[in-house]
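Supplementary notes for students who missed Thursday's class. We covered one full example, reproduced here. Read the sequence, then the structure, then the short commentary at the end.
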Amino acid sequence: MGTTAGALARRGFMDSARAGRLIAEAGLDPERHADLIGALSGAVDPDLALLGLTRVLERSPDPEEVCTALCEDPDLRARLVQVLGASVALTDHLVRHPEDWRELHGADAARAPEPEELRAGLLHIVGADPNAAAPAADPAGGGPEDPAHALRVAYRRRVLRLAGRDLTGVSDFEQVSAELADLAAATLEAALAIARFQAPDDAALCRLAVIGMGKCGGRELNYVSDVDVVFVAEPAEGVEDEQAALRAAARLAAAMMRVPGETDSEGMLWQVDAALRPEGRNGPLVRPLAGHVAYYERWAKTWEFQALLKARPIAGDAELGAAYAKAITPLVWEAAGRPHFVDDVQAMRRRVEAHIPPTQADRQLKLGPGGLRDVEFAVQLLQLVHGRGDETLRAGGTLAALAALSRGGYVGREDAAGLADAYRFLRRVEHLLQLYRLRRTHLLPDPDTADGEEQLRRLGRALGFTANPVTGLASVWRRRVGEVRRLHEKLFYRPLLNAVARLPGEEARLSPEQARVRLEALGFVDPAGALRHLESLTSGVTRRAAIQRTLLPVMLGWFADAPDPDAGLLGFRRVSEALGTTPWYLRLLRDDVRVAERMAWLLGTSRYATDLLLRAPEAVAVLADDADLVQRRNAELSVEADSALRRHDTAENAVAAVRALRRRELLRTAAADLLEVTGVEGVGDALTAISAVTIDAALRAATMRVEWERGEQACTRLCVVGMGRFGGNELSYASDADVMFVHEPLPGATPEAATRTAGAIVRELRRLLELPAAEPPLRLDADLRPEGRSGPMVRTLDSYAAYYARWSAAWESQALLRAVPVAGDAALGERFTALIDPIRYPEGGVSDKAVREIRRLKARMEAERLPRGADPTLHTKLGRGGLSDVEWVAQLLQLRYAHRIPELRTTGTLRVLDVAAQTGLIDPEDGATLEIAWRLAARVRGMIMLVRGKGGDSIPMDLRERSAIAGALGYRTEEDGEGAAELLLQDYWRVTRRARAVMERAFYDD
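Structure (token representation):
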């Protein structure tokens, strides 16, 4: 191997000339020490490693021995070179203690020590007996003259050995962090032994336990970090003066804290920080166990319980430490039930971010957005909320807790994996930064400085970015930070956390006994049946059952808020079973609590929506966003219907696919209605639009079927005309589609042949739309055609013209007010519209005779068409002040005045009333009264169908059904005990009574 400047530059040495001089000064021969020089070139920083080796060899009593060992032992060579290239601080240690290279040599250097081994080793270093109940240093008994200095040297040697394994990949991040925490605990044990030696009288008065907090308590410590502790003390056996014992314990604790924090030739190890104790820095350094318990029961703030999450005894009196853990642990896992617990934790995280200097925010490993705190806060909050009822989540370490959260279904597998990978990366960067000088830092170097760029290059190489270390590190850093921030916001601000935290602790666990009691209290009519549903959903050890155990305690309250909790829970079970192990379903409910809450409301309110959802459970995904519930554009629906027709080769299958599209839109509309995303007009628009698209697609399928059967193209054009509520864009869930069929023979076709073809197509159309299938049928009602049921089903345009010219009655002119082409030949539809406009908007207005006829028809309808036994004050369609009253007023206004007011030429009832009020045809207050009544009656009528799952025009007499409908409409029982059903009736009677008075005046009074 050459040592020329060019050769060394190619091997990665930045200052090749200097490297050549150092190699010569170190006495390294290019041939004999080729492996060593090659290893140096593979270091994180080859120049730094070579300089460090040169310094070590200069101080070594036998440099040749070191070089020989490095050449003969590749493991030693790899460890030492990587340490020298990554850590100036550990190089300085090796220079001060040139024999310590042996710490990286041999089998022990490759083996991770057990915690007890570390404890015993450091206690021996200070001359203390590891087996003693309260070990004390003893220089007189063979210990060092300065045990504190000896402890610091021994600590550095252990860190050196650990760094050798870390930098060569023998130990992973979790093992390194755990060993650092165990080493810190052992150091504190030895420091306490020194304090006992220095103050034996104090040691005799008290028992002192050291509780590790934070990363030390969680066994995930950094190379250099404050070690957070809390002290608990009790009088020693036979000591009666508690205050004297506590003062002695405080002196021991203060002396112990000084040992790692003092600076000598070895430098400071780390600070011991007791600021997490009760009352913080203002509180006494040491408290008895009872004092800790009393404080946490009465005074502790939310963040203090979060800090206690990782608390564990690490040094001192083991029995007292165990008693502390036993007393405090239950308080930690009850804390999430405190008022505003989740909000407090979230607010604290925001405060931490707010105090980051703007110039450091994008370089902060720990506190910045996407940093370590984002991971830790999210995991800790999830632990504290869900850990009340699930003891498997009570892990101290972040990664262990995250794995438990994933296994339990509280966090998605992919989210947990992404968060864990990012956390490992960030902690690895943090470790490498701190190793360099063994200083506490969480800030990436500034790339705009020369020294910062050099550090980033070294850091990037250590992380494996060899081609372009700085760019590679920056790219991965940005991606990891972005991923952490995304997942933090998803998990940390998950609304389910607040919902779970608000549950009393016993309810969050959902044991069978507690569940039965809660079900009764929540108003479930059949608690035993509901309990069976719960057991079916939550039993077992599957991930699905685990997620259900988290969701259901919260969802029970939402089911109880719905009109029929029992039906809601049953529906939820059926939907969950239908979706089985579908991965996105429970993940959606867990991660987007709004979906779970909405689903509970729909299932507990509407049999209609439940039935639709059970036919296609995957449609629950539309509940995630209001935008998904908004009516889709007609063009979009038409494209999807066209696609369905093209995908299938039979008319039956093609129309079944289009009906499935309609079913999805019915569910979307029902959900939007029940969740108040849309109003009654939006419901009518959506139901009308999807019905028109369905009929148009089915008409094409029916035409193709008839053509195929006859072996020839259809000889006529066909148009479907919407009538009644269909034509008025006012369809309800229970409405049939009122239609008329008009056709026009093609040139050369005889009227008879064309009519036979048109009849065949219409029959096929109706058959396909009503064919028994899983999808809801769409029934076409043609009773409003000329001559009603006695007349032909389909007529030519000329036939319609002849009929209306000779036989048209007043009711037919009125019926045509809502006629609008909805499917089929558009040009024919336009000609039909032109044909009927003079009939429905007669020049000069409708005659007085026709007005009298219309009034007689109205009176006759009220007398004859109202079902026997129906209460006219509760019938939404034909009852007093109901839909019919309002619509007949609007239609009479059109018949009289649409010839001179073009704006009245519309099929919508509310639009007519609006125009009539604006033009002075009716008093604006009367118009508003009629509009309010129409909206309420239409909404009640629609809700009857949604709640019962079957149509009905009258508000039910059954109190339970009426209450359910009232609840669905948003009525709630008032404080004075007045029921929701009674409130609905009072509103309905008041509104319709006023509308009836307006109708009688506007309809009958000239």
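Commentary. DSSP finds 46 helices and ten strands in the chain. The mean pLDDT is 90. If anything here is unclear, bring it to office hours.
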